[in-house]
Design goal:
Elements lengths: L2 H30 L11 H16 L3 H22 L5 H35 L1
Helix pairs in contact: 1-2, 1-4, 2-3, 3-4
Length: about 120
């Protein structure tokens, strides 16, 4: 994977993480205000903060943040699936999971390509 493609996957991953965080904020507010009974409370905002933090880390090309977000998302969705047994939104979950995985690949390849560039520049000197 080239650097441009790696950067594209990184960008997609952190944009989706930001979108996920915004959705989390909106659903929490709707639930807390009683507009839509989802059983969410203000503690859900901690999850949103974690997601935004991981999105920031991914935007800075952090492999660790990309991996944590991927597994956090999968574990969270498994818990939701088992708690309510609904498969609503399964296609979206699969899409997010694939794109978060691509974000992992993007960060790994970005750093690999960066290291190769440094080695090539040192050999030219």
């Amino acid at each position: 994977m080239g650097t441009e493609r790696a950067l594209m996957h990184i960008k997609k991953a952190y944009i989706l993480a930001i979108a996920s965080g915004i959705i989390g904020i909106l659903l929490t507010i709707l639930s807390v205000l009683g507009i839509w009974n989802l059983g969410l409370d203000l503690y859900e905002l901690l999850e949103v903060i974690i997601i935004f933090g991981l999105a920031f880390g991914i935007s800075k090309k952090s492999r660790v943040c990309a991996i944590i977000l991927f597994f956090y998302y999968i574990i969270n969705k498994i818990i939701i699936l088992f708690s309510n047994g609904s498969l609503v939104g399964l296609a979206i979950m699969v899409f997010f999971t694939i794109e978060y995985f691509q974000g992992i690949r993007g960060t790994i390849h970005y750093h690999k390509n960066l290291k190769l560039e440094r080695i090539n520049n040192e050999n030219l000197s």
